[in-house]
Amino acid sequence: MATSDETDDRVGETYRRRAGARVRNATRQVKRAARPVWDRVRFARQDVTAATPTLPRVAYLFIAPFFILFGLFLAFPVFYTVYLSFFEYQGVGEGSLFWVDLGPLYVEIPQIAQLSFIGLGNYARLLGNDLFWQSMFNTSYILAIQVPLMIGLALALALALNASFMRLKGVFRTAIALPVSANLVAYSTVFLLLFNEQLGFLNYVLAGVGVGPVPWLTDAFWARNTIIAAVTWRWTGYNMIILLAGLQTIPQQLYEAAEIDGASRWEKFRYVTLPQLKPVLLFVVVLSTIGTFKLFAEPYVITGGGPTNSTITIVQYIYRQAFVNFNLGYASALTVVFVAIVSVFSIVQIKIGGED
Amino acid sequence: MREQRRKDAVWRFLTYAFVVTMVVVMMVPLYWMLVAATLPQEQFLQFPPRLIPGTAFLDNFAALQERLDFVRTIRNSVLIAVVYTLLSLVLCSMAGFAFAKYEFKYKEPIFYTILATLVLPIQLLVIPLFLLMAQLDWTNTFRAIILPWAANPIGIFLMRQNMKSIPDALLESARMDGATEFQIFYRIALPTMRSSLAALAIILFLFQWDLFLYPLVILESADMYTIPIGLAQLTGFQRIYYDQIMVAATLAIVPMVVLFLVLQKQFVSGILAGSLKE
Fold first, then answer.
1. Does A183 sit within 8 Å of B228, measured CB to CB?
2. Which of A19, A148, A322, B207 is 20 to 30 A removed from A41 (C-alpha atoms)?
3. What pTM was computed for the model?
């Protein structure tokens, strides 16, 4: 009896379990049918996670995608530019640089360009080239005026908008920063019109007060200043926003303490604001310097480098040599020199700004 | 006392005057652009200049569209910038996470190598990249524009700086619960990085949106043009149609303004994070 009961129970148990399993299976299938894509994705993901390596090797998986693109499109071109600067470019490469043939495995590295070695010839050429020095002078001139002017304006605006009595801060801030959203070429074209000698709005206003007409685009001196005005217009608000945010991180107690000591407005600025703002200010100055060094679109659109190359910048000169005259080797040498100058500039700025 | 109060009032007045002047200076070119976009060319190129917007915007737009499919140009720009931004966000946040939270061989040298390229004006990789793309037969393609700067040094730097602030204990407890490293990354690390990601997204988008020299060299046919290239082509014709160019310029501003207004706060916090947490 007991045995049969047990057997019955066991049979019943098995039956119930099977039934349960069947029901569960059925519901799972219904669910799976309802969301087949989702489930497949989940199962696939589980397989992938089960197969991925664990610490510490997983770190390489995280950096691999970044690093492959970085190596191919950033690191390689940097080295290739240096390499190219010792050669004369003679045309797009044909055939292969070298190949490995192992029956089923055939690897071929194509020749990127046809080159002939000329050693330091490109560097000698640029040192003796008037247009190179002209473009260096133009860029330095624009840099020397534009960066201090823009940072000064941005700092003054940030201080004004940070003042406790200032109303409508958000509106002013947005309005002043709006030029950042103007497209590079779009705003350059607008400036081309604004500064037009005969029809431009600026000369119209100046004529109203009895000045002008100023040859904004056709005179070497004024053309450079037009470029400066354009770049300053676009980037002042951007820098102001960064400086403003920096100002807001300065602890209020510092100002209160300075006030108790009877500090004047200037002293508060000189001894509290400036030292506290230094890291942000440095950041802004370094980025602006690099940005102005790279100037290309504005002179390309507004003046075309003219009149008589008085606004041609280094990058524009490189562009002309590389993609108008196809002197790719020479242009690479120019690039190397240019990058060296910019790097030295940035390092010096950081060194000066960083020491305390 | 009264002397002091008068001084304060003068100071306030000068401050307001300065700010308002600057606002006007910033607005005049944008307003001028709008006026030019809404007037027929003959009316716009008059002296004295017209200062009140006209009603010819749609006519100018139709004329523009006839010469260069500018709707397509905008679409190209948006498509490239969005794909680039998303791809770069994935790459930079993953790599940034590894550099912030894992120990591995050659970690420091690798990171500083990447960082060194921050100082490089990367636009100047144009020559070797052009040769590379010509070799790959990738000229006049979007992938030639999108891929090269997807591994963005600024991006990895920002993400590493910000991800350092994630407490190790949080990651460790997830590890105890059996989470895999990828789950830890996208379930725990990424959600705390929302504002940094937004900030980086703006930086990346603006970077791609502004690229000029490189697409100028790579893109050849009009149906592939991005906004800057399209605009530059418009200024290059024998007769320059300023009205059409200004319509194009006005349309080109819209996506950036929207992005800027929506994400202004994250923009500021993200940029600061990059500059302060050195």
1. yes
2. A19
3. 0.79
